[in-house]
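tool_call: predict_structure(chain=1)
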Amino acid sequence: MTVLGLLVPLAVLGLIAWAIVGVTRRGGEPFTLATATALYARVMLIVGVLMSLVGIGILIKAGIGFINMGYSYYTPVAMSELCPAGGGCVTQNAFYSDQRSQDLVLGITLVVIGLLVAGVHLALGRAVSRMPGGSPGWITRGTLLGMTVMTAVVGIPSAAVGLYQMLSYFIVGSSPQNQQPWGEPLGLAIAFVPAWIFFMWRLVDDLRRPHMGATTAQ
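tool_result:
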């Protein structure tokens, strides 16, 4: 899906902005080797989480394809036009079945590798957090902000596109323009929207803590 193409440039721009904020506004906190390691660990944590979410979205797309291949992989009207009378559809069905199998393998691979990358770098971040400069606020909060932004960029457009295509598929009619496969955007939305809500809630909760602490101290 084209929305996934936004992740890489957005991630690069976000990393540049993150580094600038860290250099210019770190509030007197020391910048040590542990700080650099913590930044690396949090960036790779985001990468691992996003990789896993994409894999989950692909698995959901493939699962929807098991219900009906046309939901995820082809336009039914166009498919029927490609099939001559007499049963030349076997090759086409086999092609889309292979695509579904490839999506299953790709989804499982992304989930496993993503979880492994996220788990290793989460442990690394926790290890360096005990060192001087190993857990500055601009990194810990920046991680939650980065997760929130990245999941929103994929989740919200995917939900809009997936819902539109699904409703068009079932309600609007059977014309080719209304029979677009909707399994991919809906699968990404199912994976990313709950993650976006979770990270946004965590970010807001984390931002409230200093204010609560200041009030208590007074």
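agent: The chain has one domain: 32-206. Proceeding to next step.
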